[in-house]
Amino acid sequence: MADALVARGNAIKEEMFGPEHGQAKLDRATDFTREFEELVCKYCFAEVWGREEELPRDIRSMLTVAMLAALGKPNELRVHVKGAIANGVTKEQIREVLIHAAVYCGIPAAVEGFRNATQALDELGIA
Q1: Which residue, 55, 85, 117, 119, is most buried by CB atoms nearer than 10 A?
Q2: How confident is the model at residue 2 (pLDDT cuts 50, 70, 90)?
Q3: Angle at alpha carbon of residue 57, lines to 53 and 61, rounded to 5°
């Protein structure tokens, strides 16, 4: 069962972030990081992101972008903005999520969110 969850979570990661964040990342895992990478595949992606009937990926992406902005996690925010685009979220929706975050998380969090989202969108060629 655990191997099936790793495979399912890995497939979801690749759909969202591309192969460099899926199997290639698992292949690069060391003895030190392997169990963590497998945990991320199983728990985060197979068991949570995989619950698409309850909450579709585009909505999960918008929630994740908002939470990462609130937490001040710029690297993960950039990765998840790209994943949000892959999940069908528009640039305009990402903007609205960050404007909404400004009210509930504070202007500094939104400033950082916009800065990092803009960088990710630039990298995708859609800013």
Answers
A1: 117
A2: low
A3: 145
What is the total count of domains within the chain? 2
Q: What is the pLDDT of residue 94?
A: 98
Condensed to tens digits (0 to 9), the pLDDT of residues 44-53 reads: 999 999 999 9
* Mean residue pLDDT across the chain: 95
If one counts every other C-beta atom within 10 angstroms of the C-beta of residue 63, the result is 14
Bin 18: left if φ > 0, else alpha if -120 < ψ < 50, else beta: left
If asked whether residues 30 and 69 sit together in one domain, one would say: no
Residues 63 and 118 grouped into a single domain: yes
Tell which residue, 63, 118, 119, 57, has the closest CA to residue 88: 57
> Can you tell me the distance from the alpha carbon of 103 to that of 83, in angstroms, rounded to the nearest whole number?
24
Give the structural domain span for 119.
57-124
pTM of the model: 0.91
